[in-house]
Design goal:
This protein is of the alpha+beta class. The protein has 5 helices and 4 strands; from the N terminus they run αααβαββαβ. Strands 2-3-1-4 form a 4-stranded antiparallel sheet.
Length: 143
């Protein structure tokens, strides 16, 4: 496993904020050559520290999308199969197995309340789901 140094951390932070930034812009910001930046990024990709570059859509401008934070509490003996089924749902952007009694927390994007309701009913129908909590995001304040 490769060691991450301070420069790698700075590079990762820059790319996390704007993965479209050119290697030239990053090299100017970090005071390194473009070829050094290119090699470091490639090494981070090769070592699977960077898994992919992606986009984040603005749901307020992209249709009538709703973002919701959904938490389910799985029965312990069914936890793994529930996780597998949740991972297959296209509405789930992120899913995290949490410590303590927090269960499985998901960030979900849907096209309106009717689709959110269908999603919740689908999750409720997964064998071993004990309960569901749903919080609709009103406004993103950071990130």
């Amino acid at each position: 496993m490769m060691k991450i140094d301070d420069t790698d951390e700075k590079l990762i932070n820059i790319l996390s904020e704007d993965s479209r930034k050119s290697f030239k812009e990053i090299s100017d910001e970090l005071g390194l050559s473009v070829i050094t930046i290119r090699k470091r990024v490639q090494r981070l990709i090769d070592e699977e520290i960077i898994k992919k570059f992606t986009i984040i859509l603005n749901p307020e401008l992209f249709g009538s999308r709703i973002t919701s934070l959904v938490t389910i509490h799985p029965a312990a003996h069914r936890q793994n199969e529930i996780i597998e089924k949740i991972a297959e749902l296209e509405q789930v952007e992120e899913a995290h197995l949490m410590t303590g009694g927090c269960g499985l927390s998901m960030k979900v994007h849907v096209d309106g309340l009717a689709e959110l309701n269908k999603f919740i009913e689908k999750v409720r129908g997964i064998q071993g789901v004990i309960s569901i909590e749903n919080c609709i995001v009103l406004r993103k304040v950071k990130g």
